[in-house]
Amino acid sequence: MVLYNLRMALKSLKRNPVLSGLMVGGIALGIGVSTVFVTAFHIFSMNPAPEKSESLFYVKIDNWDPNRPWNDDDPSSTPSQITYRDMVGIMESDIPTFHGGSFKTSVFIHPDPEIGRPYKALSRMCFADFFQLFDPPFEYGSGWDRNSDSGPEAVVVLDHETNQKLFGGENSLGRMVRVEDREFNVVGVLKQWRPFPKYYDPHNGAFEKPENIYMPFEHFRPLEIRSAGNTSNWKDFDWSDFDQYLASEAIWIQMWVQLDSPDQKGAYMSFLNSYTDSQRELGRMQRPNNNKLLNVMEWLDDREVVPEEATSLMIISLLFLVVCALNLIGILLGKFLTRAPEVSVRRALGASRLSVFVQHIIECETIGIFGGFLGILVAVLGLRAVNSLFAGETFEFALDTHMLLQAILLSLVAGLIAGLYPAWRICSIPPATYLKEQ
Amino acid sequence: MLNMKQVTKVYRTDTVETHALNSIDIQVSAGEFAAIMGPSGCGKTTFLNVAGLLDTFEAGTYHLDGQDVSRLSDSQMSRIRNQKIGFIFQSFNLIPDLDVYDNIDVPLRYRRMSSKDRRASILQALHTVGLDARKKHLPSQLSGGQQQRVAVARALVGEPKLILADEPTGNLDSQMAAEIMELLSRINQEGCTIVMVTHDQSIADRAKRRVNLLDGKVVENPTETPAPIRSVAGFAGVKSQR
Fold first, then answer.
1. Environment class of A47 (CB within 10 Å of its CB; exposed 0-12, middle 13-18, buried 19+)
2. Does residue A388 share a domain with residue A240?
3. Same domain, A317 and A354
4. I need a surface site. Which of A179, B56, B123, B143 has the fewest CB within 10 A?
């Protein structure tokens, strides 16, 4: 019976191609626009590290002012970064599989004078485990080992672009790079790498590119490098004194750990609580224990990484689809009611109200499906236009299977919304009225 | 077959109350060919709608084929219409988009029959009305008489016990009308009960019995009135399936 109703729907659509085209086009426009913005939202909110998102944890410790919480509107909030001294303290733990703090800064790179003049580049000061935690793909070599952290050894990992700029893209392992006033040995070169969002440090732009070079964390001390990202503080100190900066309550480091089992996570949380208890005995951290371990998606939620505009535009686009569907109601109602005599004949010949209702809902869903497929084409063109705005980026907005299925599902919902009332009206007509009038 | 007792149907508007059927008693036995006659507005079509379960009524009882059908749900009435009643209308009421085959197929579609069984029934019905060669024609490609024969085939295809015909020859010229009446008479002779509404005396003469309605009441209910079945020159191809 479904196939029969489908055949009747196609006959009905062929009967008035212009009207059918208008209806399908209306749904297609709604599906196309909503799919573009739902896709954008989907990409902004997708899991950037699906394989490790349940084992990577962002560490939050509450070292904030005893008299006011980190966020005045949320007493349970915890500062979004940690202090240098706390990073050093909790990195004493051997519970995590991998762990390490890192921060973004900017340094001067001095290329060979024949190639170019010194320029400022973004650098990430990090530990060897950074490359284990976040798995950036390597073109040449690898990250440095843990022994190089403690020296620290003068080693560096370059990103693809910097290797292009300094060495023409050649295998530069073993070559020297001058950063600030020191020479560093290249031990690794990354391939193109664009975590989206930049989840390991979404501060100052969650969708910005990663840094250009990666250096062992402890080089920041002799170079007296400070964070080029967010730094927050609640307790005064002399900012010009580097040692006071390191001993301060200023927070500027992002701390990540890999905990591969619930037991490991539980043990590490106990360790964190013991650590803050011990700090409280020393006169710090007078607030109640409020340590947090957030997995990747929890961390991105906490940072509200998805742009408000993406959410708003998605909601508006879905409302636009609803408006398209509501517009269809009037057209379908008129179309169906002109068919009252035929429906009356069907009713006389044995069709129940339900049969008539189902027949007309299937016709609406047929319009929805056609609109859905055409809408996917509209969405592909729309996403192509959006991608042209991000030309040169290593990411792109594209429809995946999930989004295609969602577009088809939306078109079915739109067909249903548009068809329910007209189908109910036509199945409710008294057949006797129209049989004599034909 | 059809037994109405004290059936009353009232149409109400804000200011007027019209008794379309006023406590009528009508019985039609199995195998009868009854003509319902009367002037315009006497309640003929209302009677047919009530008899065909296309309309409800306010008072009285109605038994069809021994079953009380006075108060049934929509789906129950639909099932009875589909399985026990065949309709023939004055204006044929074929679905214009569907070819002859698909028009005859409509009632069978609501029976969940297999494709093979439906095809066999449709071809048999087409053969009965002599339109084997026209199954792929659209209604607009047929004459009025041919369209009404398709409508007869559609009414017959489900092998109903009762055929309700509303002015079946009203839109036909006299020769085509004779063909259709010949066809109905043959169907009746095969055992199918026919109740036909008409205001045409000559057409009513073909029925075995007449019931006269006036102002929603039965005014005369003569018993068995023999009506000769006249052969019609030029009519061919009608064969019985029963």
1. middle
2. no
3. yes
4. B143
Domain boundary among A302, A337, A354: A302
A50 domain residue, yes or no:
no
**Model pLDDT, residue A53:** 84
Do β-strands A182-190 and A155-158 pair in parallel, antiparallel, or remain unpaired?
A: parallel
A10 within 8 A of A283, measured Cβ to Cβ: no
- The residue of A347, A358, A435, A438 whose CB has the most chain B CBs within 10 angstroms, and thus the best one to mutate to test that interface, is A435
Residue-range definition of the domain harbouring residue A415 = 2-45+307-437
Which of the four pLDDT bands, split at 50, 70 and 90, describes residue A41? confident
pLDDT digits (tens, 9 = 90+) for A152-191: 999 999 999 999 999 999 999 999 999 988 999 999 999 9
Domain boundary among A244, A277, A302: A302
Residues A322 and A370 in one domain: yes
pTM: 0.72
- A287 and A356, same domain (yes or no): no
Do A39 and A104 lie in a common domain? no
Q: Is residue A51 part of a domain?
A: no
Q: How many CA atoms lie within 13 A of B135 on its CB side?
A: 15
ipTM: 0.88
Q: Which residues of A touch B79 (CB under 8 A)?
A: 350, 352
Q: What's the mean per-residue pLDDT of chain A?
A: 92
Of B45, B55, B82, the CB nearest to A350: B82
Q: Are residues A96 and A213 in the same domain?
A: yes
| Strands A155-158 and A292-295, bridge-based pairing | unpaired
State yes or no: pLDDT of A350 exceeds 80. yes
User: Are A334 and A216 found together in one domain?
Assistant: no
Q: Name the more confident of A193 and A45.
A: A193
Contacts made by residues A281-290, CB under 8 angstroms, sequence distance 24+: A284/A63, A284/A249, A285/A61, A285/A62, A285/A63, A286/A66, A287/A62, A287/A64, A287/A66, A287/A69, A289/A62, A290/A62, A290/A76, A290/A78
pLDDT in tens, B74-102: 999 999 999 999 999 988 999 999 999 99
Residues of chain B with pLDDT under 50: 221-242
